[in-house]
Amino acid sequence: MHRRLLAVLVPLAVLLVAALGVPLSVTVAEREMQETYVDRLGDVGRFASLAETALSAGRTEALHQELARYHELYGTPVALIDTSGAVLLGPAGAYQEAARHEPELPRIVTAALAGARSEPSGEWAPWDDSALVVAEPVGRDSEVVGAVVTISDLSKTHDRILVRWARLAGLGLLPLIALVAVAWPVSAWVLRPVRELDAASSRISQGDLTIRADAEAGPVELRRLAESFNTMMDAVENAVQRQRAFVSDASHQLRNPLTSLRLAVESLEPHLRTDGDGRQVYDVAVDELKAMQRMLNSLQASARMESMRTASPVDLDAVLATRVDRWRALTATAGQTLAVEVPPGLRLLEPPGGLGSVLDELISNALRLSDARVVEVTARVVPGGARAGHGKAYAPREVVTIAVRDDGQGIDASERAQALRRFWRSPRHQNVSGTGLGLAICADLVGAAGGELRLEEGLPRPDGSGHGFAAVVALPAVPREASSGAPAPQQG
């Protein structure tokens, strides 16, 4: 997270440094060029004064030697030209060679012969290789008899500009380096409570209500946020615990009176007339009492299972090894066939309360409610994605799906969403024993492990009238450690 913060701060700092550094760099370049121009202007002014004296006195030998000496020392050709543009004094060859590469030279010379001092020529940028041409008229006004012209190579000036720019860039990098050096630990310190809150929220979404944020680290605002978060979680945990305690205590406290009531009702059986309506009322009362006892048992089981909120890795082979034989016995007793097709070596995140309990409930539904002939248990690994698990989207990874399918009655697509609600029962199953809590509890437990329980079409019915019922459990796959050894043999 602090990398993203630096990705915002560093470009802003770069823009700020560039906004200050670019004008300063331009100013430095202009100053260097101005100094070079002033130096050349002073030189040609001096040579123009000497040339005027030499021409008026007719003694040009000394001036010619001085112009040649200047060229030898500085490598800059300087020449005295007449009004026709011909070289009178100076290194004519070097001057003419340099003049061929300067398209601005004729304009500058023409202006000097007209009595005007020239402006500097060429671009003032270190990447431009044009020379600096400076011309000074010899004489005054209408008495101009020639001009002194220099053609200066600006490579050394450009080198100085680049060196100055490099220094400025180095100075500009110092605050950027200091910003990164300071912002990295500071941003980590500021954002650490945010990361801890994010991790705590993730744990809470998986059902762990005991997690709390660190309210002693980070800025004052984040510490206050962590304290508010902890206070909120205390209230939520207390409310959930009171709710579970109420369900458990209420079902437990009602068990004894309900048992006593059932015994009292059943004790009336010897006193009932065989040909009266009392027998029918008695049977209804006993059935209702049995249903209430099953409801209390389910509520207590729900409270116990929901109190276990820790998901842990488990080998599917180990779970099936303790279940498949029992499932086969139950299906055989009911006149059904059980088929188990599960590849070996699958490892997944087990829901709180155990994966075996969830599968037991799904098999029990297939046996009691579907009127099926075949029950099939399959498993496979599929690529993960943004699945909705208990109101939460988890990162894409591999998912193990375990499907329990049958070829029985099934339920309509419109009823599948309702089937995961507590106490909901299909109208076709009103006379079948059950509480309507099993699938809802399984869905909550699977969601607490970051998975999903969904209902789908099952196997085709033998008579071709449609499909049976299918419950599919999707749970995150857990990578198997290299040292875990070979997987256990698959049962069934």
From TrEMBL:
Residues 188-241 form the HAMP domain. InterPro entries: HAMP_dom, HATPase_C_sf, HATPase_dom, His_kinase_dom, HisK_dim/P_dom, HisK_dim/P_sf, Sig_transdc_His_kin-like_C, TCS_sensor_his_kinase. It catalyses: ATP + protein L-histidine = ADP + protein N-phospho-L-histidine. Gene3D superfamilies: 1.10.287.130, 6.10.340.10, Histidine kinase-like ATPase, C-terminal domain. One of its GO terms (molecular function) is phosphorelay sensor kinase activity. Its main location: membrane. The chain crosses the membrane at residues 165-191. It is found in: Cell membrane. This is histidine kinase.
